[in-house]
Amino acid sequence: MPNGPRRATLATVAASAGVSVATVSKVLNGRSDVAPATRSLVESLLRQHDYVAPALAPRRGEGPGTDTVEVQFDADINAYSNEIIQGLVDTGAELGVGVVVGIRRGAARSGSWARDLVAAGRRALIAVTSQLTGGQLTALSRARLPLVVIDPLNLPRARVTSIGSTNFAGGLSATQHLLSLGHRRIAYIGGPATAACNQARLHGYRAAMEAEGAPVLPGYTSFGHFRYRDGLEYGAAVLDLPEPPTAIFVGCDEAALGVMEAARARGLRIPEDLSIVGFDDTQIARIASPPLTTVRQPLREMGGVALRTALRLAAGEPIDSHHVELATELIVRGSTAEVTCSRHA
To answer: Does the keyword Electron transport belong to this entry (predicted)?
Structure first.
C-alpha cells in the first residue's frame, strides 16, 4: 500500500492530553487507576489521532504459522462464501497462515475498526463483496493494513487491490448458450444494480442479445441482492408478464434456485418449459433438481490468489496488477434445453 501519514505515538497523544505517557498506556491497557475524566479525554484523543498500537514482535521460535489474515463478509455466509473460505483456508494451510472469518454488519467506525484489526495482530484484510467507504479506506491506509477485495461492490479508488473473474465473458457465454438452443425471449435477474460484477454480467447478456438481434423486452431485467428470495420474487414477476421468457439467465446460483421454485409454483417444468442458467458453480448448482447449468466462477482459486496477494502487500513486495480477473467457464447441466414450439409462440 502507499505510504500513509506517520502514525501517532503515545507521546503524541500524551502531549495533546497534557498527561504522561504512562497514563496513556494505562488507559490503553484498561487499568482502573485513571480518573474517569482523564480516561474519557485520552480515549477521545486516541480516536482523534487514529492511534494504532504497534504490532508485537514474534516470540523466539515463532514462525510464519503465527501470522493471521482476516476475511470479512458484509452478510451471512452462503454457498458462494463457503467456496471463497475453502480457497482461503486451503491456501492458508499451505502457507502456514491463519485465516480468521468475520462478518461486518453495517458501516463500521472507520478508525476504531482498522485499529482493532491491527491490535488483534492481523497482517492484512480481505473483504468479500463489500462496499467500502472512503473513510474506511483512509483508516486502513493510516493503520498500514493491506487490503484486498474479492468481487467488490464498488471501487472508490483506482489503487484498491481487487480479485474478480471475467464476468462480462461469463454473461456473454451464458446468454449465447441459451440463444444457441433457440431461445429469444431471455430475461436477466442480477444482483445490486451498481455492483461492478453485476454490471459486467448484464453487459455480457446485452451484448449477446444485440449480436443475435434478439430484443430485451420491457420487464426482462431486474436486480436484487444475489439471494434465493430475490430469485423467487423477481422470477415470479417476470414469469407473470403477458409475454414471459422461455429462458432466464440469473446472476448467481442461489437466486437461480429461487427462480426454479417460482417456475414450479406456476406449473412450469425445467427445462421443458423454462431454461435457467446460473452463475458461480457452487455446490448447490450440482445438487439442484435438475442440476443447474451455470457459469463457473473459480471462487476457491480467487480466495487463494487474494490471500497470496495480501501477504505480498504485507511484506512490502510489489504486485503485478491491482486488479486480477480469473477465467470463467460455462458448465452445461440439466436445467437448459432447446426451446419448444409451445413456449416459443
So the answer is: no
